[in-house]
Amino acid sequence: MNDLQDKVAEELRITREQVVQVLEMFALETHRSFYELRHDPIGELRWNTSPMAFFHLLGVLRSLAEIADGEFHSEEYLLRMGTQEDWQPFSDQMATWKRPEER
């Protein structure tokens, strides 16, 4: 069975590596936007994505909220990803990000 990246690559007729790069950059920039813009990240996301992408991203957020029943703790999921050494480089990418009150 194909995983998500393989399925998208097949649908778009691009390589799996290209899909991974796009997903990584999209997630990174979406995270940065939510972190830095804080005033209206959902509105910002709406105007910087297609209607289809916006609809499905909101669906993901809604599903996460329902599954977590208000108890979503990202640290728990990061621990499932591996050790701190595994995910620390991604956390380090945030070193230069500034929340509005920090500017």
Gist of the model:
This protein is mostly helical and 103 residues long.
Describe the protein's architecture and organization:
It is a single chain. With 103 residues, this protein is mostly helical. The chain has helices at residues 4-12, 16-37, 41-47, 51-68, 74-81, 84-92. The model has no long low-confidence stretch (mean pLDDT 85). The chain has 6 helices and no strands.
Mean pLDDT across every amino acid position: 85
Q: Helix coverage percent of residues?
A: over 70%
Instruction: Write down the Rg.
Output: 16 Å
Q: Identify low-pLDDT runs.
A: none
| SSE string | HHHHHH
Query: What count of structural domains?
Result: 2
User: Quick one: biggest sheet?
Assistant: none
Distance between the termini: 47 Å
- Contiguous helical run count: 6
Strand content: under 5%
Number of strands: 0
Structural class: mainly alpha
Shape: globular
Search tags:
about 100 residues, mainly alpha, 2 domains, 6 helices, about 70% helix
Please render the helix and strand layout as text.
Layout: H1 4-12, H2 16-37, H3 41-47, H4 51-68, H5 74-81, H6 84-92
